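new request in #modeling-help
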Amino acid sequence: MAEGDSVARIAARLDAATSGAVIVHSDVRHPRFATVDLAGQRILEWRARGKHLLSRTDAGVTVHSHLRMTGSWSVLRPHKRLPARVLPQLRIALRLDDGRTLVGVALPVLTVLRTSDEHAVVGHLGPDLLGPDTDSIAVAAARVAAAGGEAVVAALLDQRRVAGLGNMWAQELLFLHGVNPWRHAGGVDGLETLLTDARRRLRHAVRENPSQNTTGRRSPRHWVYGRARRPCLRCGTPIAFRPAERTSHGRETWWCPVCQPD
Ligand SMILES: [Zn+2]
């Protein structure tokens, strides 16, 4: 799943590439929105909210999407077409007034709605680690702690409690703060410190790691993420791993049993 920082980079890239452009033809391949016509509307901006993408037009319309594991957005140069093998996965194509075409492929979530109704699709999200500073870390920490007896790793990934963390960041932050992922969320000290650090690292990643990759996938060096049975980079202990099907929240989990004691 894309991380919040990847989605923020994608939003910034699409914003730079297409804001100000006028849509001259729209094709939304979604049963609920097939009749939607965005022609004549100017793209005002792209924004990320948690891991959701919001593209707003001057007609007060928002195209809302979520990439999950599969989705991508790209901008085709004039006269450039999508490869035939990708065509069945096309969900939305917006031809722009300069001849380019904005295409969304394999988007598992795609909604077209009034901008004033965005709360219906992103209103459930907790404070956004990449949002404005008014999105309170203290509130996010309280929401994570409110998960009580739930594993802290699951609580950190619950976007209703705090928005923007994907599995990679959750694992790495828990390692860096010496917190065992299976500890009860309600009993973890220093959640506010951990989330403040998370915000700093995510913001840094948005600035320092410009990605050309529209899926937001990236492969930096990790402390624990993806390192099952390999020696901990800090203490040498083999990294522990639990497959997704053996966790209550359905996500692969890695940790160092020594650096992150139970
Ligand atoms: Zn270790």
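bot summary: The domain at 4-122 is CATH 3.20.190.10 (N-terminal domain of MutM-like DNA repair proteins).
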